Amino acid sequence: MARGKTLPLSVWMVWSQERSLRLGGDFYHTSRIIGASTGLFDHSTGTLDFLLNSQINNGQLSIHRNRYDPSIASAFAPFGSYFLDDYQPLGLLSFYQHMRHTNDVKYAQKTWNQLEEQLNWLLGKISATDGLGHFGSAFLGGADAGSAVSCVTVETLYVAAEVATVIGKKTVTAKFRKCIGRCNQ
User: Fold this and answer.
1) Mean pLDDT for the stretch of residues 82-101
2) What is the rounded distance in angstroms from the CA atom of residue 131 to the CA atom of residue 162?
3) Whole-model pTM?
4) DSSP state of 95
């Protein structure tokens, strides 16, 4: 983005303008305090919309800047996947925080299909053998069956089941709860 231009959406920006990132992990921290700090929920919605517009075929959402152009998101996933897999559940937790603060059920219904694609990607990272998260790369710690990535995965499934229940997706809720049971063994 050239200096002095504006984005068409309300998007939370992190770090300096030249290095602005819309990282799912960074937005996760911001999304938890929006209600108490600014109340600018349009920025929360705008950031979530921006991330959803960057979704690639496997369900993942972009975790980096993509030059502010979601139409080229797949260019930053040359092998069909983004890096730092553990930022995906953090992005989903950001969505939950948005829902918790706004109770915007219509927004959840509108975006659910995309979120479910991302959640299905996440379910595919849970081992049927040990119930732990097995990711290709992670920022939070060990990517392969690490405790941090496994815990954030379980938390994501808990909140996804809660949102699914609120919007009337009972079979999806049951699917997530069953998986949580496997993870907790």
Assistant:
1) 86
2) 21
3) 0.80
4) H
